[in-house]
Amino acid sequence: QWCLIEQDAYKVSLASSLFFAGLLIGNITFGPLSDKLGRKPVYISGLFFDVVFGYVTALAPNYHIFAVSRFFVGIVNGGMALVSFVLTQEYVGKSFWSFTGSLTNLMFAAGIAVYALLGYCVREWRYLALVSNSPGVIFLLLSFMLPESPRWLYSQGKMAEAEDVLQYIALGNGKERLNLKLKPSAGTERRDESAAGILNLVKHPVLRWRTVVLMYIWYVCSLVYYGLTLNAGELRGNLYLNVALSGLVEVPAFPLCMFFIEKSW
Asked: How much is the pTM?
C-alpha cells in the first residue's frame, strides 16, 4: 500500500523492530510505576492507550504514523500485560499461583490461534486491525470494576482498603463476611524511609543473582519463542494454519508448568 519495496523494503521489518523496542521499554518502566502508583491505575491506563494506539495503527494514513503507533503499542502493551499478570496473581493465594499464572499465559496462546482465524476471515489488514483491537474496549470497560490489589494496598500501609478488597473477594466467592483485621508489617510501618526500589535488586547478593538468572531465562525463552512464532508465516503450507498451530502447540505445556511449579524439589 505504501510501496515498501526496493530501497524502502527495510521499513517492513523496521515497524516490527519498533514494536519490540517499545515492548522492552514497557516491560522495564511499568513495573516500578505500578509499585509506586498502584496496579489498577497503571493497568487501566496501559490498556486504554493500547486500544487508542491500536486504532491509530488501523487508521494510519501513512507509514510514519503507522510505525510510530506500533512503537507506542509495544510500550503500553508490554507494560500493561506485565502489570495485569501481577495483578491477577495478587488477587489469589499462593496455592493458586501456578493455576492463575498458567491460565493467564494460556490466553496468549489461544489469542494467537484466534488471530489466525480472524486473519483468514478478514483479509484486509486495516479491517483486521480494527476487529482484533475492538475487544479491548470491552475489557477496558470491565476493568473499571476490578478492585485494587490487596497485596499492594497492604504493602502501602492501607490496611482498611486492603480489608475492604478482601471482604469484596470473599463475598464474591460466596463466603460469609470475614472477621478480618490486618496488622501492619515491619515494612509498612516505616513509611518515612525510602521505599524499596529497583536498585535493591542489585544491592542484595541473593536478589542480584536471582535477577541475573531470571533475566537470562527470560531473554532466551523470548528469543526462541518469538523467533519461532514470527517465522510461522515463512513455513510451507497454509499461512493461517501455521500461525494457529504456533499458538495451539503451547497448550500442552501449561499443565506441565503447573506440575513442575507445584512440585517440591
From this structure: 0.86
Cell of 80: 500493561
Question: pLDDT for 81-106, tens place per residue?
Answer: 999 999 999 999 888 999 999 999 89
d(CA 127, CA 121): 10
Question: Angle, nearest 10°, between helix axes 63-91 and 97-121?
Answer: 150
pLDDT tens-digit series, residues 158-171: 999 999 999 998 88
Per-residue pLDDT band at 57 (split at 50, 70, 90): very high
Q: 176 or 110: whose pLDDT is higher?
A: 110
Mean pLDDT for all residues in the chain: 88
Cα 1 to Cα 63, 126, 181: the distances in Å are 9, 11, 62
d(CA 256, CA 98): 10
Alpha carbons within 13 angstroms on the beta-carbon side of residue 138 total: 5
